[in-house]
Amino acid sequence: MAYRSYKVLLAEDDETSADLLIHYLERFNFEVDHVVDGAAGELKLRKEAYDVILLDNQMPLMSGLSLVANMPEKNRNKPVIFLTASNEKENVLYAASSGQLAAYLLKPIDLNSLLEKILNALRINSSSLVDKKVFPFSIQKISREGYGIGVRLIGCPYGKTAERIAQEISFVLKELPKPRKFFVEVEEAFQYQKKASELLNSIVTKLVAKYEISQEDILIIDRV
After folding, report:
1. What is the pTM of this model?
2. CA distance 80 to 193
3. Cα–Cα–Cα angle for 53, 57, 62, nearest 5°?
4. Domain Response regulatory spans what residues (predicted)?
5. Is 40:86 a contact under the CB 8 Å cutoff?
């Protein structure tokens, strides 16, 4: 399966709303960066290129309108979706004059409508989405001739931390035989997780500490 992730900037000062949106979007192949004020949003937009930008208007330090009006060059042609209150219709119309506004949604945000607006803004359809829940995560103990014992990481570790996965691996492996080495076989769906390489490195670090071995004693087999 060809896999592509889409980078999203979410500028929203309400942490509860932001957590809900992030959790929903990162169920699919969206990588979300979150900021809580317009100034932090402008800084992110100067440094990183995004595929789509989600903006609350009423933010500290700089409003969503001001951010659109002063959009950094790196993201000047990227679609913006306004997340707005019902009494801000005039602001939305003003933002639309910039040409960057792809859509707007009234709060409270309907998640299905948000996904539809994002797909339209990116000019893709639902077949471009990868639903990580379709690839449930599990760990299987296996052995390979020439490698010894190891584990296979099956599916996408959506919602799991490195600490939790390392604990589950150690539960599956139990005690290591001599020589104290093992391998970790990683299936393609593992890479669907945000920052999968960093997550895998963190898992290895925790396993090294758990078993008191060196990183060279853990062989990573990537089946992508």
Report:
1. 0.80
2. 25
3. 95
4. 7-122
5. no
